[in-house]
Write a structure and sequence with these properties.
Elements lengths: L5 H9 L12 H5 L4 E2 L15 E2 L5 E7 L15 E9 L2 E8 L7 E6 L5 E8 L5 E6 L5 E5 L6 E4 L8 E2 L8 E7 L4 E6 L6 E8 L2 E11 L4 E2 L1 E4 L23 E7 L2 E6 L4 E6 L4 E7 L13 E6 L5 E5 L5 E5 L4 E8 L7 E6 L5 E6 L13 E6 L4
Parallel strand pairs: 1-25
Antiparallel strand pairs: 2-25, 3-28, 4-5, 5-6, 6-7, 8-9, 9-10, 10-11, 12-13, 13-14, 14-15, 15-17, 16-21, 18-19, 19-20, 20-21, 22-23, 23-24, 24-25, 26-27, 27-28
Length: 387
């Protein structure tokens, strides 16, 4: 069934009708409605640095990779159109993986860092796939790389590059965007980048093994209580997965997806929303909507990828607009955290924190040129006093 109309949601929010859900860090914020503009806990953005980033005082940036150029200190050429990404622990250091959203040769590359943040290696971990958009990390430290086309698959990859990547068709064939693992309920949530897309979860037969299981779709009539229904034919279909369950909820362009503190957050670009699925109580609510801002102007538009700190703060990237990553705090404040200057025809992709939370990685997919093939892509690191 279609979601409630924007006018209805706006009226409900103004009237205080947005229901609070149980995630302890977000209960207070959502009791008073979707996030509203306010001051950043890090202060205002400063003038652009030498890498073109406007950051709060005390933060600094560097470029760790550029598309079609060798990664410094390695023999590996960084891929075009860098997209979804995540970080993984690796001994005293860590690894950042990054998808390539191009046809036929998309795949995934990885950067290895030592304990001091020096790049010590770069290499491929997936080849020969197409339009690898976003994905998600698993609790057993693999990267799920998602293909964004009608028959797209999820590929499970090894960030260290020691094990061969494996397709996971049981997770469905559809226009995959992002994935987020819920270790409590032992499921993986999945978004679909269609104007009438769905929100899914995959229940593997055995947690930690994604080779078999059940794909389910979210069913409901809007915000509030929801339920899950099995998708009859997720792998081989004449009717697309999103059309196989009559009452499946429709979402306008599913994008980023991230699970933290009992809540799975996912974004929809068509209506500028950040959704919040309370997994324990099976409730759906709206954490942010650029049309439900009642105090000043909405700072966050064109919502896309999302990640979070261990404290529960969300970091939401923009696809275009003024190229910002916005912070949504646990007390319901939405505010710019950084801005990429001069990349007006690009989008921000792949935000992910290092395992210790001190560094944020992300890419400008098409860079300054905005060339659609992403050959001017640029991958950044931001370091500073993240709370």
């Amino acid at each position: 069934m279609p979601l409630n109309r924007r006018a209805f949601l706006r009226a409900a929010a103004v009237a205080g009708g947005t229901t609070a859900f149980s995630g302890a860090l977000w209960q207070r914020a959502l009791a008073s409605g979707p996030a509203q503009p306010g001051p950043s806990p890090y202060g205002p953005l400063q003038t652009a640095d030498g890498n073109g980033l406007q950051l709060p005082r005390g933060f600094r940036s560097r470029i760790v990779a550029r598309s079609q150029q060798r990664v410094e200190g390695t023999r590996h050429t960084w891929h075009p159109a860098p997209d979804g990404g995540a970080c993984f622990p690796d001994g005293d250091g860590w690894i950042y993986v990054s998808n390539s959203e191009v046809p036929l040769v998309g795949g995934v590359s990885a950067l290895r860092f030592d304990a001091f943040g020096k790049v010590t290696g770069a290499y491929r971990i997936l080849n020969g796939t197409t339009l690898n958009c976003s994905g998600g990390a698993t609790p057993w430290n693999t990267w799920l790389s998602c293909e964004e086309h009608d028959y797209g698959l999820v590929y499970e990859t090894d960030p260290r590059g020691r094990k061969a990547a494996v397709a996971r068709p049981a997770m469905g064939r559809f226009k995959h965007e992002a994935a987020a693992s819920d270790p409590v309920r032992k499921v993986v949530y999945l978004t679909e980048d269609q104007g009438d897309g769905c929100f899914y979860r995959f229940r593997p037969k055995t947690w930690g093994d994604l080779s078999s299981g059940t794909l389910e779709v979210l069913v409901g009539s809007g915000t509030g209580p929801v339920r899950w229904t099995k998708v009859p034919s997720p792998q081989f279909w004449l009717t697309p997965t999103r059309e196989q369950v009559v009452d499946a909820m429709r979402f306008d362009g599913g994008e980023g997806c991230y699970y933290t503190h009992g809540v799975c957050y996912f974004t929809t670009k068509g209506d500028g929303r950040v959704w919040a699925y309370d997994a324990a109580n099976e409730r759906l609510d709206i954490a942010y909507d650029d049309g439900l801002v009642t105090t000043g102007e909405a700072p966050l538009h064109s919502v896309d990828a999302v990640t979070a700190t261990s404290s529960g703060d969300l970091y939401v990237a923009e696809d275009g607009d003024n190229m910002e990553i916005n912070l949504i705090t646990t007390d319901g404040i939405v505010t710019p955290f950084l801005r990429v200057a001069g990349h007006d025809k690009s989008e921000i992709t792949g935000p992910a924190f290092s395992p210790d939370g001190s560094r944020l990685y992300f890419s400008s997919q098409r860079g300054r040129s905005g060339f659609i093939a992403g050959t001017d892509g640029c991958t950044f690191e931001v370091t500073g006093p993240f709370r």
